Amino acid sequence: MALTGPPAVHDELVHLTRQLMTGDRHSDDHPSIAQHSFLSFIGRNDGCKATEISEVFGVNRSTISRQVRGCIEAGWVYVDPGSVRQGNPLHLTEAGRKYLDAADARRLDQVAGRLHDWTESEVADFARALHRFRISIESQTNGDDTL
Predict the structure, then answer these.
(1) Which residues of the chain fall short of a pLDDT of 70?
(2) Angle, helices 94-114/33-44, rounded to nearest 10 degrees
(3) What pLDDT shows up at residue 147?
(4) How many domains does the structure of the chain reveal?
(5) Alpha-carbon distance 139 to 64, whole Å?
(6) Structural domain that includes position 109
């Protein structure tokens, strides 16, 4: 029997999340979903600190520290010197911005490819429904819509 209602929505979200997490494996040309999220956050919040990212993403500080190290080593992020206690401001390098822009363009092309046979009205309805669903859980993310 096919699922309906909230169980059907949940099932589709689980499948979509799984595709997002495993469908675009990390390579030199493609950031992992974790790297992409991390770089996107820094790009939108220039000068943010690892502690802020940890709080917003709801993950352990050590997880973010590993992402910071990896992105610095890759040349995508640089850290302003400062008090370790206060945290150091993070910024995208020019290479990091180009890498993120290219990844965003690839992902947008993937979305466009999946929607190629949809009407403009169907795409608009889908975007509105996704937005409405995301906004409905804002209280769980303290109103932060930058994730």
Answers:
(1) 1, 21-29, 82-86, 138-147
(2) 120
(3) 45
(4) 1
(5) 23
(6) 28-141
Q: Name residue, tokens 């675009």.
A: 24
Place of tokens 């965003």: 104
| pLDDT recorded at residue 13 | 86
Question: DSSP letter string over 18-86?
Answer: HHHHHSS---SSS--HHHHHHHHHHHHSTT--HHHHHHHHT--HHHHHHHHHHHHHTTSEEE----TTT
CB contact burial 55-85 (16+ within 10 A = b; e otherwise)? ebbeeeeeebeebbebbeebebbbeeeeeee
The enclosing domain of 39 has a CATH number of 1.10.10.10
pTM of the model: 0.73
pLDDT for position 19: 75
Is 33 among the domain residues? yes
